[in-house]
Please model this.
Amino acid sequence: MSSTRLLSFRRCLPLRRSSAAGWNHPESAGAQLQSPSGSSRGSRCTLVRTMSSANLTLDNLNPQIKVMEYAVRGPLVIRAGEIEKELEKGVKKPFNEVIKANIGDCHAMGQVPITFIRQVLALVSYPPLLDDPTFPEDVKERAKTILKGCRGSSVGSYTDSPGIEVIRKHAAQYIEKRDGGIPCDWQNVILSAGASDAIKNVLKLLICNVGGKKPGVMVPIPQYPLYSASLAEFNMHQIGYFLDESKGWGLDVSELQRSIDEARKVSNPRAIVIINPGNPTGQVLSRQNIEEIIKFAYKEKLFLFADEVYQDNVYAEGSQFYSFKKVLIEMGKPYSDMELASFMSCSKGYMGECGLRGGYAEVINMDPQVKAMYLKAISAMLCPTVLGQATLDTIVHPPQKGEPSYELFMKEKRGVLESLKLRAKMVAETFNSFEGFKCNPVQGAMYAFPQFTLPSKAVEEAKKQNKAPDVFYAFELLENTGICIVPGSGFGQQPGTYHFRTTILPQTDKLKVMLDKFKEFHTTFLKKYG
Amino acid sequence: MSSTRLLSFRRCLPLRRSSAAGWNHPESAGAQLQSPSGSSRGSRCTLVRTMSSANLTLDNLNPQIKVMEYAVRGPLVIRAGEIEKELEKGVKKPFNEVIKANIGDCHAMGQVPITFIRQVLALVSYPPLLDDPTFPEDVKERAKTILKGCRGSSVGSYTDSPGIEVIRKHAAQYIEKRDGGIPCDWQNVILSAGASDAIKNVLKLLICNVGGKKPGVMVPIPQYPLYSASLAEFNMHQIGYFLDESKGWGLDVSELQRSIDEARKVSNPRAIVIINPGNPTGQVLSRQNIEEIIKFAYKEKLFLFADEVYQDNVYAEGSQFYSFKKVLIEMGKPYSDMELASFMSCSKGYMGECGLRGGYAEVINMDPQVKAMYLKAISAMLCPTVLGQATLDTIVHPPQKGEPSYELFMKEKRGVLESLKLRAKMVAETFNSFEGFKCNPVQGAMYAFPQFTLPSKAVEEAKKQNKAPDVFYAFELLENTGICIVPGSGFGQQPGTYHFRTTILPQTDKLKVMLDKFKEFHTTFLKKYG
Model:
C-alpha cells in the first residue's frame, strides 16, 4: 500500500526532468528526480525540498550514492522495460519486441545453458537424484565431490567465506593449466558472487586517504561502469586513461603516464584496472602491451586489477589471451613480486550463467597481514552463494576426455563460441557499412563499440531535449525499433566523439534482423537530421 | 605458488600475537598480525613496518576494514577449523569432533532440507526434469512460474536488480497474510542475497555527515555483529542500547533515551535497529514493547530497521511474533507514515537454507526520490542470485492445502520447528543447572545467551594470556571439548558480565552429549580456578 498512499502526503517541487541522466525509476512512483550525473555531483541536491514527512531525503542521503551511475541498467534500460509493459498491454509500436542489446545477458538472448552445468546443479540441489540412472556418472561424481565439501553435505549450509576448499583447489588447477603450468596456490583463490562482488571487495581495501588526498584508481576510458560506480560509492578518485581507438583500443603507455601525472595533483594513485578482453571495446591485448602495462604499474607502485572475465571469449585470428599473472610471473623479478588480483566470472565465456552469480578473484603477492584483513572483511557477509560456487566448479573442473559428458559438453561449448565468433565478425562488418560508422574488429568479449558521427541538426535537437547527443540517438533508436543499446557516454569516450555499446548476443537470425532494422533506422535518422 | 614463495621475500617485525582478537587467519600463512580489536581502533597500525615489497600494507589499508570485527567467524572459529584439520590428520584430542555451535547454520548441524524447496530448485536448474513423472505437479507449477519470470526462461539470465517480479508479488502476498491483511505493495519488496546484503544496502543510504557529525545508528547490546561490522566499514557511529537481561532481554525506553542523548553529542542519530526475535538473546518482543519503540523512534526521527529473520522461530508459550510493520500501521497516523525496512531471510526459520543466499527487504514510506537512488545503487551489482530468489519463492509461496506436496511439506516444517522448540527449552534449562549460570528462556530465534560468573583466578589467567575472560573461557572450552561457541564480547555485554552465545542447532541426541560435555568441562574449570 505504502508507496501510493505515501504520495498523497508528499509534494515535490516540480523539477526539470532529465530523462537521460535522471533515475526516475518507474518503481519510485512518479517522483520528480534530480539528475545524479557527474556534472551535478550532488551539488544541486540541496535545491530539492520536499514536503515529505520522511527523515531520509535527497538532502541527507549518502552523497556518494547520489553521484553514482550505472549506465548498463540506466534510464534507457528503464524506458525499455516500460516499453515492454506497453507492448504487453497492446500499445501499438513500430516493432513487436524490445531487443535488449544493452547487457551481456547470454541466456536472455536465447543462448541455451550447458547441460553438464545444469545437471550438476540439479543433483547438488536435490541429492535423491544421485540415484537417477538418467544422469551421467561424471555428473554424479562432480555433485558428490561438491556435497562432500559442504557442511552437513548440504548446499544449504554456510561455507568458509572464501568458498569451499575443493572448489578453490579445482580453480587453482584450472588457472595452472590455463597459464601453462605456472603454479597457483588455492589459498589465493577467493570465490565470490560473480566477479563484481570480488572486484568491490578488493577495491575497498584501498580506501585510505593519505596526505589529504583521495586514493586514485586508473580505469580505462571507455570502461565497464561497475568501476566508475564503485569508485563513486567508495569516494575514490577515478583516473581515466583513454584507450587508443585508432590502434584497435590498445593501451598506450604515454597516455597512462599523462593520466597518472595529472591525477597525482589531486589524488594518490594506488591501482590500475585493465579489462582484457575489453569491455565495451572488444580488444584482446598483445603480450607486449601487457608487459608494458606491468612495467608501468611497477614503476608507479600500482596494485594490478586484471578484469579477465572474458578470457574464454577470443575470436579474432591471431589474437590470444594472456593472463596478467602469466606474463608477470614470466617477466621475473621484480615484476613477479607485484600485487595482482585477477577476476573471473561464470557469467561470460561459453557458459553465460549470469544469474547464478559465481566467480573468483586470484590474489597474488598480497601482504599476508593485508590478506588476513581481506578475509576478515568478507567474513561478515558469510559466504558467496553455494550454488554459484557449484557453478564455478563445473567450469573450472569440466568433463575430461573419456568421461561420459565430454562429447556433449565440448559440442555445446564449441557451438556457443563458434557462433559468437561469427556474430562478432558480422556485427563489426555490418556497422562498418553504415554511413558515418567506424567499428574496430571485435577481437574478444561480447560487445561492439562503434564510433558514429551525427549531423549537427541532431546534435542541436539533443541539446534542446537536454540529452547528450549519443543518449538522444539511443533513445530514438529504442523508441523507433525496440533496440536497446548503451550510449558511449555511459562508458566514457573522447570528448566530441559518439559511440554506443551493443552486445553481439542476439542469436544469429535475430541479430541479422536487428542489424537490418538498425540500418534502416540510421538511414531514416540521417535523412531527418541531415 | 605465490603465498609461500612470497614469504621468503618478506619479513615482519615480530609482534605479540593476540590469539583472541588477532585475525591471524591460517590462510595468511604465518603473518604476525596486529589486533584489530575495538580498543586499538587502528591506532597501532602505524607501528607495523614490514620489509614487504607490497604497495598495499597495514599502513595504508582502508582503516575501516582494520577496525571491523565479525565474531561469529572470528579467531575462535578459525582455531576450530584448525582443530578439525588436526583431527583429520590423526592428532589426539580429548574429543573426536568439533561441534560448531557458533553459527546459525542449520544444515551443517544435521537439519535435513525441506523436500519441496529442493525439488523446485532442481527443476528450475535443469528444466528437462519438468518431464520427470516422479516430481509432484505443484513443484512443476512453481518451477514453471519462476522460469516464466526469468528472461529466456533461464535462471542463468540476469533479473531486474530488485528481483523477479512474480517472486516479489508472492513475497508481498506472504507479508499481507502474515500481517492479517495489511496491504503490501510488491514494489516495496526488494529481493537480496540473504538478509545481510539487504541490510547493508539500506544502511549505506544513511552515510552522510551532517554538521561535522557522523551518522549514528542505534543497535542493541548484545547485537548480531553484522551491524557493528557494517557500521565500522561505513564509518558510522554505533549507538549501543543495552537490552535488559533482568526483563528477559526486553527493550527499555529509558535506556533507549539514555543512549541516544549521549550519542547526540558526537553523532547524528538516524536509525534504530531492532532484532526480533532476538539474536543472540532469543527474546520475542511484546506488542506493547514494539509500540513503545515505534513511538520513541517517531519522536527521535529515526529510520526503523526491523531485523525479523527469525519470524518463524517462536517457541515459548504466550510469545507471538508481531511484525513492526503491522504494529506501526495499526497504530495509525503519524506512526503509519514512518520509514521502515523489514528484513527476511531464507537462512533461518524452518528452512535454514543459509548457503543459498535468499532474502528480501520490505521498505515502506521511503521518500520516492530516495527509493529511486536505492534502486540505482543496487543496480551496479546486477541482481541477487536467481536460485536464491527461487528459494525465497518456495518459502513465500509454499504448498497449499490440497496440493500434492502439502502434507510432506507441513510434516517436515512442523518437525523442524517442534524439535527446535524442545531444544530451546532443553538448552536454557540445562544451562540454568550449571553452577554460576543464568539463562533467560529462549523464546525464539536459534540461540541461548547465558550469563556466567568466573572465579577471580580464571580472570587473572585470562589477563595473563591477554584475552578477555569470556574469550579465555571459550578457548578453554574449545580446546578441551571441541565445542565452539562465541564469547559475549563479540556481541557486546554489560561491562563486568560474561556471556556466550551458543546455537540450539545440534540435533537432539548430539545436543544432549554437547551439554553433558559442557557441564563436565565447567565443573572441571571451576575446580581448577575456584
Observations:
- Chain B has a mean pLDDT of 90.
- The CA atoms of residues 164 and 520 of chain B lie 52 Å apart.
